[in-house]
Amino acid sequence: MSLFLYEHPFAMYCWKPLIALYERDVPFTAELVEADRSALAALWPPASIPVLVDDSVVLAESSIIVEHLDRHGDAPSLIPTDPDEALQARLWDRVADGYLTTPVQRIVGDALRPSDAKDPYGVSQAHATLDLAYATLDRQLDGRDHGGWLAGDDFTLADCAAAPALHYADVLHPLDRDAHPALTALLRPGTDAIVGRSRGRGGPPVPRAIPAALARTRVS
Questions:
Q1: I need a labelling partner for 14 at 20 to 30 A (CA). Which of 41, 131, 202, 205 fits?
Q2: Which pTM was predicted?
Q3: Of 55, 73, 74, 43, whose CA–CA distance to 2 is shortest?
Q4: Residue 85: is it exposed, middle or buried by C-beta count within 10 angstroms (0-12/13-18/19+)?
Q5: What is the mean pLDDT of residues 105-129?
Q6: Fold (CATH) for 83-198
Q7: Where are the domains of the chain?
Q8: Rounded CA gap, 63 and 90, in Å?
Q9: Which strand ranges, in their side-by-side order, compose the sheet holding 51-54?
Q10: Which carries the bigger pLDDT value, residue 175 or residue 159?
């Protein structure tokens, strides 16, 4: 068995399978993807990241990769075996991607545009979406009968998605700690409770790398 993850350390969607790999203690080789994506396009024509190669299997899209990784390692499944709990994990994965990651990407993308191509209305919408996301996630976590994870008592796909998204979002659109105490409980200085879950199983590179990743996203 040989697993190769095509990724970039500053890409939010790449952190989702990275967290899953560390959580499940699965050996893998990281293949850094930079400007030249021709080799990646030969495997996956859109040349988007992340892409996982597991022997002859080529998988794209971060959520699909995490689901596949449940076939490796001995940790509890990141997609719960109970059908109802699995739906909750997939639901909150979609919420994290759609309401956190997507607006963060819009804000960062706009900051990288030339001055004559800015989209202030789109950026304003993105900030409003992040406010909605914070309120939605805080309500999900506040007073719920689960252990503080988004989808229930256990760490799941949803938490793999939320960890990097919350890190980046909090830099670009700071979370109001007083207004959202339940969501704030997931965040700690330098690293958050979700990413810190690695419990020594190869996990230390994750919290060390995230602050560096965040520094690269700071925009004025």
A1: 131
A2: 0.84
A3: 55
A4: middle
A5: 96
A6: Glutathione S-transferase Yfyf (Class Pi); Chain A, domain 2 (1.20.1050)
A7: 83-198
A8: 8
A9: 29-32, 3-7, 51-54, 57-60
A10: 175
By three-state DSSP, how is residue 178 classified?
coil
Rounded distance, CA 197 to CA 167, Å? 15
In the prediction, which pLDDT does 186 show?
74
pLDDT value at residue 158: 93
Q: How far apart are CA 22 and CA 195, in angstroms?
A: 10
Question: What is the amino acid identity at position 85?
Answer: E
Q: Which residues pair with 29 in a beta bridge?
A: 4
Rounded CA separation 89/107 (Å): 26
Q: Is the pLDDT of residue 131 over 60?
A: yes
CA–CA dist 177, 77 (Å, integer): 31
pLDDT the model gives residue 129: 98
Here the tokens at position 11 are 């890409």
Amino acid identity, position 213: A
Nearest to 4 by CA among 61, 51, 45: 51
Give the mean model confidence (pLDDT) for residues 82-106. 97
Amino acid 206: pLDDT: 39
d(CA 98, CA 25): 28
Which residues sit opposite 149 in a β-bridge?
Answer: 152
Share of the chain above pLDDT 70, in %: 82
Angle at 14 between CA 183 and CA 115, to 5 degrees: 85
6 DSSP β-pair partners: 31, 51
CA 140 to CA 189: how far, in whole Å?
A: 22
Contact 10, 59 (CB under 8 A): no
